[in-house]
Amino acid sequence: MSALPWLRTKVFADGADVAGIRRLADDPLIRGFTTNPTLMRAAGVTDYERFAREALACSEGRPISFEVVADDFGEMERQAARIAGWGERVYVKIPITDTCGASSAALLGRMVARGVKVNVTALLTLDQVRTAVACLAGGPHAFISVFAGRIADSGRDPLPVMREAVELLAPHPNLELVWASPREVLNVVQANEVGCHVITLTHDLLAKLPLIGRDLADFSLATVRMFHQDARAAGYAL
Predict the structure, then answer these.
(1) Which helix (H) or strand (E) is 127 found in, with range?
(2) E-strand spans in 42-166?
(3) pLDDT tens digit string along 14-37?
(4) How far apart are CA 144 and CA 179, in angstroms?
(5) How far is 103 from 105, CA to CA, in rounded Å?
(6) Cα angle: 81, vertex 82, 83; to 5 degrees
(7) Cα distance between residue 206 and residue 122, in whole Å
(8) Boundaries of every domain in the chain
């Protein structure tokens, strides 16, 4: 993958394909890995722990996040302890609420007390960021994942939210902000501009990184050629 010397934001690969994780582990641009149950299901994962241990084994010393799958906070806590036991590089993904909207703040506090490294996930509001920061500040290293792409999906500009989130985390050196669920390569540039610590990229978006900075006239010509070649390959005639 092309080097991006200007990029300060760390790139984490987001996916559940063990072969892809193994391949990306050879790329120095990739600083960590994340996954979630939706990606795992799409990848055909049927044995969670087996997948997780395989992914951990081939992720070459980088941090990797695995998510609890329960909705009851007591069961989430039990699962979190089990996941954390898979290795020092493991971060436990805990959603900011349960499926009824009840806050996971108390659970996050217990995780901090137990020394568990967490990646609190599915945040979309600054109030949620404040809650997570209050729970995790001063504890073990942790990630706070704001789903900027989903904010954009709602028709709102995520940049003001991400800028303020960066400021909320700034006094707490143990916390890193994750720009989660990006929708386009432009988000990498935006995350870097606002000082976001990490951005997660699916394997499809990672493949587009070499397009950053491409000459637009050249890109236009390549697009015209693609349309023409596909029309010929399909045998279209009028």
Answers:
(1) helix 126-136
(2) 64-67, 90-95, 118-123, 142-147
(3) 999 999 999 999 999 999 999 999
(4) 9
(5) 5
(6) 95
(7) 21
(8) 10-213
14 Rama sector, left if φ>0, alpha if ψ -120 to 50, beta otherwise: beta
b or e along 25-41 (b: 16 or more beta carbons within 10 Å of the residue's beta carbon)? beeebbebbbbbeebbe
The CATH number fitting domain 10-213, selected from 3.10.50.30, 3.30.470.20, 3.20.20.70, 3.30.70.20: 3.20.20.70
Kindly report, residue by residue over 91-115, the tens digit of the pLDDT: 999 999 999 999 999 999 999 999 9
Per the CB < 8 A criterion, the answer to whether 137 and 172 are in contact is: yes
For the chain, the 3-state helix, strand and coil shares in percent, each to the nearest 5, are: 45, 20, 35
- Closest by CA to 86, choosing from 44, 111, 117, is 117
Structure confidence by residue, pLDDT tens digits, 78-91: 999 999 999 999 99
> How far is C-alpha 9 from the chain's CA centre?
12
**C-alpha atoms less than 13 angstroms from C-alpha of 122 in its C-beta half-sphere:** 15
Which residue is it, tokens 């979630």?
36
**pTM flag (> 0.90):** yes
Name the DSSP letter for residue 235. T
